[in-house]
């Protein structure tokens, strides 16, 4: 019977539509799981010999998923289906004939191949891949303590093949540094996606629970391949309908489909649900009726979704209801919900994104002001989910001071993978560089070297073991119904990079980009090396033509697309006047510097020691004042904007030199996108430079040509910037 089951798995793998039906079209649907045929004959023969057969120990939906992936990937890459056999219980493994062994470490023969330290360190989700020799016959072992570890290890082996690595002497030990690695989908029940630029929501609520689209499984596969283990299905600006029986049954269908791939589902819970759904007069977190309502609702959720992960909550922010409506603290609200979830192992992820609760205060200070006094007052199954910066996912801002100020609270990073402030899905911006920059920021929480990565990995309660410590990271997804998932082909790299950094916050943006390029396009170094360099610099290019030197929030109000430094919402951030530009956050201004550790506060208070890329974040600088570039503030600002446009032009030239190295469809699409990005970079440059010039009243540097005003309409101080289809080439 078991042999028949495995034969079925083999057949399903061979005829997988995800890989066979779409791979030739190269429309991007396959993401980094293309499994293209290996053209290097020597390498292909080596793989054929090493992977001629697979033995699987025991069986489960997750192990079957791993086996299916291995068979499918190996077959597509080397043109040969490996023989598959299985053993059960403690049956002996024949190391004389089996080439690839997939087994848990409760198999004595497998455990004997590894040290005690290796076995202990990988935990519940890690894995070991090792080439061993028995009777001079090399064997590749994929071993783990759990089924999901075996799935992660299988994807790692396939990545090695996709990137043309040798399998001769493997000795790989991998485990996730963070327990929760979650995608936040800002998806609405009507199918729209807030800040989504890749089509509509993946979740077709109308046809759930009856129809489980193949795309749901492919989504789960892609996430499992990079170690993502959770998905928040609905928008942070939540509808209470998500908590109704009708939608819980639909959510349960997705949870069941995702379970073999190790992905738990979470829901954003609207704080006012007891009033809107329960018809109570209040949602006060200390009211006994409210407490009972949440307990009953959580019991109902777990009845339908036994592996439910918990709640994400946006409360007392941007008009959303919250405990502040009743004079209660964030801790009061979070702990009430956490108490309802705790018996089931559920958690609360409570967002720290709050502002304008104190009118006129520096927005960069408000999250800290509300949450710092509550350090240590949150229950053990609560995490505070804080954005990487204190404002709002800006192209660059100072890191969020909360990461250095909450040593007794579980902290969770929130990145934005969707490009709300990076030109939507039009601009090529590799966010791996941004993820790396912030994760390596030193908070000085416990002295030098206390990076944000270390803060995220830290045990709040030293007595807890690795399996129970609560650590995490979240990324606002950039995924939609577009055929290539992310709109821009290079947007896929940001989804991929987030997963890799979630697994290991100290990973390298460089190596991640290289792996993604090889798996997504080609292993040709003539393509990989120059395009990797282009990717690594692309975030800085966008900063240059959007918000250089520490400027922030210059985008058009509400939509956040295109320049809008003239809006009132932007003026409070750049403070441009006849004297200079920038927001004084030292003791003579808002004193936001005092929220950082003393060493950093001192560094940021002094213009000479403030990093050049943050000087306008912390200081108001005169137009004629010399800065570290050696030029005046005005000339430097203008040069950065013009440099950004030139850099996009250079990106276009590099891309054009790649013609013929990859498939024509994706090459042509990226060509068009880069052309559009160049137009929009000039849109940004012209709008910002001409607007700020009205304050500086200085001429442009001699090497910067005047923008083509003939194509624009610039009323004094309030330029109306149309979409730049008719920009000149200046």
TrEMBL record:
Domain Glycosyl hydrolase family 67 C-terminal: 486-703
Keywords, comma-separated and alphabetical: Carbohydrate metabolism, Glycosidase, Hydrolase, Polysaccharide degradation, Xylan degradation
Catalytic activity, as annotated: Hydrolysis of (1->2)-alpha-D-(4-O-methyl)glucuronosyl links in the main chain of hardwood xylans
Enzyme class at the top of the EC tree: hydrolase
Oxidoreductase found in the keyword field: no
Active site: 318 (proton donor), 392 (proton acceptor), 420 (proton acceptor)
Residue span(s) of domain Alpha glucuronidase N-terminal: 31-157
Name under which the protein is recorded: Xylan alpha-1,2-glucuronidase
Organism expressing this protein natively: Arachidicoccus ginsenosidivorans
Highest classification ranks of the organism: Bacteria, Pseudomonadati, Bacteroidota, Chitinophagia, Chitinophagales
């Amino acid at each position: 019977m078991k042999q028949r089951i495995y034969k079925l798995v083999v057949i399903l793998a061979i005829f997988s539509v995800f890989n066979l039906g779409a791979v030739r079209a190269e429309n991007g649907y396959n993401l980094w799981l293309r499994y293209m045929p290996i053209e290097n004959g020597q390498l292909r023969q080596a793989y054929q010999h090493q992977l001629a057969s697979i033995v699987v120990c025991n069986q489960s939906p997750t192990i079957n998923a791993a086996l299916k992936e291995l068979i499918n990937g190996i077959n597509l890459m080397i043109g040969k289906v490996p023989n598959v056999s299985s053993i059960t219980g403690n049956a002996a493994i024949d190391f004389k004939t089996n080439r690839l062994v997939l087994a848990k470490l409760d198999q004595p023969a497998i455990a004997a191949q590894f040290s005690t330290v290796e076995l202990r360190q990988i935990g519940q989700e890690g894995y070991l891949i090792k080439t061993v020799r028995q009777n001079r016959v090399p064997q590749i072992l994929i071993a783990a303590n759990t089924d999901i570890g075996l799935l992660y290890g299988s994807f790692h082996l396939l990545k090695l093949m996709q990137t043309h690595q040798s399998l001769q002497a493997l000795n790989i030990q991998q485990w996730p540094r963070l327990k929760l690695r979650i995608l936040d989908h800002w998806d609405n029940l009507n199918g729209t996606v807030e800040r989504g630029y890749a089509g509509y929501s993946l979740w077709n609520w109308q046809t759930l629970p009856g129809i489980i689209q193949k795309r749901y499984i492919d989504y789960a596969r892609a996430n499992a391949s990079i170690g993502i283990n959770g998905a928040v299905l609905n928008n942070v600006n939540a509808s209470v309908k998500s908590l109704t029986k009708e939608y819980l049954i639909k959510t349960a269908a997705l949870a069941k489909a995702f379970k073999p791939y190790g992905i738990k589902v979470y829901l954003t819970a609207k704080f006012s649900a007891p009033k809107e759904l329960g018809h109570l007069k209040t949602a006060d977190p200390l009211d006994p009726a409210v407490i009972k309502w949440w307990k009953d609702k959580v019991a109902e959720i777990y009845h339908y979704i036994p592996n439910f992960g918990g709640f994400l909550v946006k409360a007392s922010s941007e008009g959303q209801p919250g405990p502040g409506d009743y004079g209660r603290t964030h801790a009061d609200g979070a702990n009430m919900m956490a108490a309802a979830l705790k018996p089931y192992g559920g958690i609360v992820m409570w967002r720290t994104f709050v502002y304008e609760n104190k009118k006129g205060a520096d927005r960069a200070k408000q999250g800290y002001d509300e949450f710092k006094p509550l350090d240590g007052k949150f229950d053990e199954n609560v995490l505070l989910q804080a954005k990487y910066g204190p404002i709002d996912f800006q192209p660059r801002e100072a890191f969020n001071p909360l990461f250095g100020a909450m040593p007794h609270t579980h902290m969770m990073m929130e990145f934005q993978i969707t490009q709300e402030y990076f030109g939507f899905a039009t601009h090529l911006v590799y966010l791996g560089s941004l993820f790396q920059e912030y994760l390596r920021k030193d908070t000085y929480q416990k002295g030098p070297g206390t990076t944000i990565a270390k803060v995220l990995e830290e045990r709040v309660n030293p007595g807890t073991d690795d399996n129970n410590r609560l650590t995490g990271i979240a990324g606002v997804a950039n995924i939609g119904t577009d055929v290539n998932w992310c709109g821009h082909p290079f947007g896929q790299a940001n989804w991929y990079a987030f997963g890799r950094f979630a697994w290991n916050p100290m990973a390298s943006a460089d190596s991640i980009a290289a792996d993604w390029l090889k798996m997504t396009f080609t292993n040709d170094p003539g393509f990989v090396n120059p395009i990797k360099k282009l990717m690594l610099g692309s975030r800085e290019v966008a900063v240059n033509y959007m918000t250089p030197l520490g400027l922030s929030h210059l985008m058009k109000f509400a939509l956040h697309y295109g320049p809008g430094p003239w809006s009132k919402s932007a003026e409070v951030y750049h403070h441009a006047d006849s004297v200079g530009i920038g927001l004084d956050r030292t003791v003579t201004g808002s004193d936001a510097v005092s929220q950082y550790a003393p060493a950093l506060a001192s560094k940021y208070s002094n213009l000479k020691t403030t990093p050049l890329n943050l000087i306008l974040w912390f200081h108001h600088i005169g137009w004629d004042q010399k800065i570290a570039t050696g030029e005046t503030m005005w000339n430097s600002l203008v040069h950065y904007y013009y440099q950004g446009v030139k850099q996009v032009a250079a990106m276009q030239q590099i891309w054009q030199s790649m013609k013929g190295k990859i498939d024509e469809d994706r090459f042509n699409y990226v060509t068009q996108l880069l052309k559009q990005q160049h137009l929009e970079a000039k849109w940004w440059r012209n709008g910002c430079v001409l607007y700020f010039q009205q304050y500086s009243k200085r001429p442009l540097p001699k090497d910067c040509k005047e923008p083509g005003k003939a194509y624009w309409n610039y009323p004094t101080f309030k330029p109306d910037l149309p979409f730049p289809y008719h920009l000149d080439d200046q």
